[in-house]
Amino acid sequence: MKKTKILVATMIVAIIGLITVAADHIDAPAVTGGSADITDFYAFQAENSNSIAFVANVQGLLSPTATASASFDENVLIEFNIDTDADAVEDLIIQAIPRNGKMYFIGPYAPSSTGVNSTISTTATRNEVTISSYGSTPIVSNAGNMKFFAGPRDDPFFMDFARYGEIIGGNAASFNDPGADTFAGTNVLSIVVEVPKSMIGTSGNVNTWVEAKMKQ
Amino acid sequence: MNLNKIKYIAILTISLCVASCSSDNDSPQITTDFSGTFVLKDQMGRPAINTVFVDASKKDNFNTTIPSNQGAAYQSDFQTKLLALNPNYTTNALGMDAATFTGALATDVLTVTLDGKTTFFDGTNVLTGRALADDVISVELLLIFGGPTGADNPGLTDDNVSANDKAFLSSFPYLASPW
């Protein structure tokens, strides 16, 4: 049933080319279904209230049977951007990139240049964690009060996307109550990094966003 | 200084050097090569912004427009889209008129406080982060369709899915195990 719904949703997207899946799942033609397709981004105070956790999810709508064989792309850099002075330009970045079964984390550090193109510093703090495999206990690494994880997880996003599509398409006037979570039973590939607040600012607000960048 | 003593010191020095060289050889610098240039393909700050507010023809462009350029490039488009979704929009529960609201949204970054509770909206705090359990879609629907009091268009302001299908963990890595 769920699978059928997702199939129908995917077909609607393919045929109409108008409706896309929230939060950022398959949001645009160039990334849809690819390894650089960000599905979601979260930033929140960690269990340790002196730290902030960042979550980037990619490759959404993985069925349980498709999850074991899903893998991060070694040519895709995931970059957490942190703007500390409210100009929407990154002052600090945390980069994550996989290689040979491990996810490497570089930073937080001030990049030598900002914007569309990125390089990876060879001198900034570099940590790593073994990428967790489907069906096993999550592997977490710790270094310098930071924590790192990479691997498949349940998609934390929830929404009645199917109904939203019907409303936007003019085929329904309101949401159902209760609604149906279109993302129930599906997985994503997650990157989770936790850093002390002192590494990304002092007090007040920071602006954050996540980027997927493909090796040229 | 007798000859034996000199020999002894010489041997000791050589041994130390060998030991130290050997130590270096035992831990060679393994540097994984991450050289090259990586080019922007996808990005997001707040949930569903590209999905809801960007026209199909511009979705790839939005993903490759850096946040500091998004406001100037997209505020007007966002306002047009907002008024297409809700032709009766005046202000929303945050008291923002269409230009102010879409101006805030077009620069797609997620504000995070370093001083306390991080939540998309919890009834008190507004946009201080995004926690896993936050019902972000219903917040956005309310701000788009709910009018100044949140009471307008009651059938459109909540998708009536208010929690994930699996419980989150209280400890790192926080996300639930996969299905």
Task: List the main descriptive attributes of the protein structure presented here.
heterodimer; A: 216 residues; mainly beta; 5-stranded antiparallel sheet; 3 helices; globular; B: 179 residues; mainly alpha; 6 helices; 6% strand; extended
Structure description:
Chain A: Keywords: Signal. Chain A: InterPro entries: DUF4331. Chain A: Residues 1-22 form the signal peptide. The complex is a heterodimer of chains A (216) and B (179). Chain A has helices at 2-16, 64-67, 161-168, and strands at residues 38-45, 51-62, 76-83, 92-99, 102-109, 117-118, 126-130, 141-143, 146-154, 187-196, 205-215. By secondary structure, chain A is mainly β. In chain A, a hairpin with an 8-residue loop joins strand 3 (76-83) and strand 4 (92-99). By secondary structure, chain B is mainly α. Chain B has a domain at 49-145. Chain B has helices at residues 3-26, 49-53, 59-63, 67-85, 98-106, 136-145, and strands at residues 38-44, 110-113. The radius of gyration of chain B is 29 Å and the shape is extended. In chain B, 39% of the residues are buried. The model of chain B is unreliable at 16-29 (pLDDT under 50). Chains A and B meet through strand 1, strand 2, strand 3, strand 6 and strand 9 of A and strand 1, helix 2, helix 3, helix 4 and strand 2 of B.
Concise structural overview:
The complex is a heterodimer of chains A (216) and B (179). Chain A has 216 residues and is mainly beta. Chain A is built from three helices and eleven strands, in the order αββαβββββββαββ.
What is the fold's blueprint, element by element?
The complex is a heterodimer of chains A (216) and B (179).
Chain A: H1 2-16, E1 38-45, E2 51-62, H2 64-67, E3 76-83, E4 92-99, E5 102-109, E6 117-118, E7 126-130, E8 141-143, E9 146-154, H3 161-168, E10 187-196, E11 205-215
Antiparallel strand pairs in A: 1-2, 2-10, 3-4, 3-11, 4-5, 5-7, 8-9, 9-10
Chain B: H1 3-26, E1 38-44, H2 49-53, H3 59-63, H4 67-85, H5 98-106, E2 110-113, H6 136-145
